[in-house]
Amino acid sequence: MNDQSTRPLPSWNDSEAKQSILTFVEKVTTTDSPDFVPPAERIATFDNDGTLWVEQPTYTQLAFAMDRIKALAPQHPEWKTTQPFKAVLDDDLEALAAGGKKGLIELIVASHAGMSTAEFEEIVTDWQDEARHPRFERRYTELVYQPMVELLAFLRANEFKTYIFSGGGVEFMRPMTEAAYGVPPEEVVGSTIETRYEVRDGEPVLMRLPEIDFIDDEAGKPIGIHKFIGRRPIAAFGNSTGDREMLEWTGAGSGPRLMMLLFHDDDEREYAYGSAKGLADPMLGAFPPSLMETAEEKDWIVASMKDDWNQVFAFES
Amino acid sequence: MNDQSTRPLPSWNDSEAKQSILTFVEKVTTTDSPDFVPPAERIATFDNDGTLWVEQPTYTQLAFAMDRIKALAPQHPEWKTTQPFKAVLDDDLEALAAGGKKGLIELIVASHAGMSTAEFEEIVTDWQDEARHPRFERRYTELVYQPMVELLAFLRANEFKTYIFSGGGVEFMRPMTEAAYGVPPEEVVGSTIETRYEVRDGEPVLMRLPEIDFIDDEAGKPIGIHKFIGRRPIAAFGNSTGDREMLEWTGAGSGPRLMMLLFHDDDEREYAYGSAKGLADPMLGAFPPSLMETAEEKDWIVASMKDDWNQVFAFES
After folding, report:
1. What is the mean pLDDT of residues B236-242?
2. Which of A47, A61, A66, B192 could cross-link A51 (Cys pair, CB 3.0–4.6 Å)?
3. Average pLDDT over residues B89-104
4. Is pLDDT at A226 greater than 50 in this prediction?
5. Closest to A222 (Cβ–Cβ): which among B40, B197, B228?
6. How does residue B276 score in pLDDT terms, banded at 50, 70 and 90?
7. Nearest Cα residue to B69 out of B93, B85, B47
8. Which of B197, B199, B207, B232 to probe by mutation at the A interface, max A CB count within 10 Å?
């Protein structure tokens, strides 16, 4: 990570988006400013998929789930003819998308349960180490956005706590967030499945059950923020309709606020799917015109990947 | 709070309990010790009721719920003849106890829902300011154990994060934990009820619903620890059967561990109910012989309020 003490956010162009961040951080950290915010209240929340790392051509966790489904398929002959499993076995992303979030949850439940939390962590860690992204041919953990990594570090250097609030599974993220983002497990919140406490041969374990506990998306994000932090963030970062409520909730507090959406409009360095037209599949990172309208109306910053970032990935340099 | 830099834990007598704490903290913080634990992994979890503050003659939150039920009773004439509400209106703690945890939850749900989270916080804050404990005639927030407040501060001074994991409602605790214990809201975990995100006159609010979301007690404690922190604590403190699984889970990790139960055996300065015989009501702070056996078997420290503490409350001095 760059030393940002003399030149913060080096991968950001000197445009309005960067200036908005710098101005905001300066005013909340200047002791004699009327906008000063004590460090304890400097909470910033970040979406993960499409905000901190790549979510195309599918969510990383979906790629993981698909690999798991394929590995488990011999024990489930019925999957050959049942959706959404058939779509996975056929590598048919269109059919998968047709199943919507409901199908996604079915896949998650079938592929993410039935083992202890410790066993699952090992499965995830192994996969994240071995799997490669189809286009970039790199580990998914390398496909984190360098400008956002710098932003996280810059905020923490200014005594912010930087939380992740993602629709993704918390136990899929925690093995990678510390190394990739500098975010410790206790500041990562995501969707969860139910677990059961059991004592096996005298050793307590937490077994993962095929049942959804909490979906940390849309209205689930402010609900989760209230449950996990108990304070309202003063800054929030997202990239899709799933982040709307988190930004609304953040913006509704009193005092200075920073809300930002990342707009994916760079198909050379990453992907361009930043509008409803950009992608057939509304499940993945949708940024419809209605969200753009809300952003304009509420003065949320919309950062353009193409125009506001001079570098997308660390491996480019 | 005392400066503990020269003489830590001044309200603890120089007995085995105190010595165990000091030895543990020294070995996990000594860089060249084989038992050294990096600061990020120094997680300590504390039960609240009966571990950090008084839980007799009833849980503080139950006293609050009873006051709320009485205030709401005119709108619920049926409560005069229905348990557990009748027991509350008659101040009949015995009948309340007969209803067990199920009855308790009914009271919580009836008295803690139907308002926004912001409104509830105000109700709780007002009550905590006004209500007085029947025996000590002080605010409940003054009835925190000085030795435990010192222990929390001592651990934090040694780069521990000190979390509360309580069966009590998180939104009943968060208004008081920072001032009383130095624990910020994001390090307080408790039972929760469901909330719903709504936009009211353009302002987003979280409405509290009459439905249990999560009970942070017994097996719920390790489940909550895994969900909220994602790391295993290296130290855990409790006082009753509701803490058994938290201590088991903590103890099952590798490396140095500290597990401690507080035994209430001091009816002069506080209460003596530290055994199954001590209290008719198994609902409140039960410490049955079976728990004492487990403590002996697993080398959990049992701290005696009578013998190990030279001071119980700050206001004594």
Report:
1. 95
2. A47
3. 87
4. yes
5. B197
6. low
7. B85
8. B197
Nearest chain B Cα distance for residue A147, angstroms: 25
Task: Tell me the percentage of chain A whose pLDDT exceeds 70.
Answer: 96
Report CA dihedral (A215, A217, A222, A228) to the nearest 10 degrees.
40
Q: What is the pLDDT of residue B280?
A: 45
B177: nearest Cα among B287, B25, B46: B46
- 3-state SS of chain B is CCCCCCCCCCCECCCHHHHHHHHHHHHHHCCCCCCCCCHHHCEEEECCECCCECCCCCCHHHHHHHHHHHHHHHHCHHHHHCCCHHHHHCCCHHHHHHCHHHHHHHHHHHHHCCCEHHHHHHHHHHHHHHCCCCCCCCCHHHCEEHHHHHHHHHHHHCCCEEEEEEEEEHHHHHHHHHHHHCCCHHHEEEEEEEEEEEEECCEEEEEEEEEEEECCCCCHHHHHHHHHCCCCCCEEEECCHHHHHHHHHHHCCCCCCEEEEEECECCCCCCECCCHHHCCCCCCCCCCHHHHHHHHHHCCEEEEHHHHECCCEHHHC
Q: Determine whether B137 is exposed, middle or buried from the number of CB atoms within 10 Å of its CB (0-12, 13-18, 19+).
A: exposed
Instruction: Residue A224: name the closest of A216, A235, A232 by CA.
Output: A216
pTM above 0.90, yes or no: yes
Query: What was the pLDDT predicted at A94?
Result: 85
Mean pLDDT of chain B: 93
Q: Among partner residues B174, B204, B231, which is closest to A186 by beta-carbon distance?
A: B231
Q: Which residue of chain A is at minimal alpha-carbon distance from B43?
A: A186
B151 in Cβ contact with B262 (< 8 Å): no
Residue of chain B nearest A172, judged by CA positions: B230
Is residue B114 scored above 90 in pLDDT?
A: yes
pLDDT in tens, B141-164: 999 999 999 999 999 999 999 999
Instruction: Flag whether pLDDT at A280 surpasses 50.
Output: no
What is the average per-residue pLDDT within B158-182? 97
Q: What number of other Cβ atoms are within 10 A of residue A14's Cβ?
A: 11
> A169 to chain B: nearest residue by CA?
B227
> What band does A277 get if pLDDT is binned at 50, 70 and 90?
low
CB-based contacts of B251, cutoff 8 Å, min separation 6: B236, B257, B259, B298, B300
- Residue A286's pLDDT is 78
Amino acid letter for position A316: E
Q: What is the pLDDT of residue A189?
A: 98
Alpha carbon B131 to its chain centroid, in Å, reads 19
Cβ atoms of A28 and A258 within 8 Å: the answer is no
Helix ranges (H only) for chain A are 16-29, 60-72, 85-89, 93-98, 100-112, 117-130, 146-157, 170-181, 220-228, 244-251, 289-297, 305-308
Reply yes or no on whether the pLDDT at A5 is more than 80. no
Residue from B172, B215, B226 to probe the interface with A (highest A Cβ count within 10 Å):
B226
For residue A276, pLDDT beyond 70: no
Q: Which residues of A touch B196 (CB under 8 A)?
A: 219, 223
Q: What is the model's pLDDT at position B58?
A: 86
Nearest Cβ partner for A188 among B213, B230, B249:
B230
Closest CA to B150 of B301, B302, B1: B1
Token pair 């009949």 is at which residue? B92
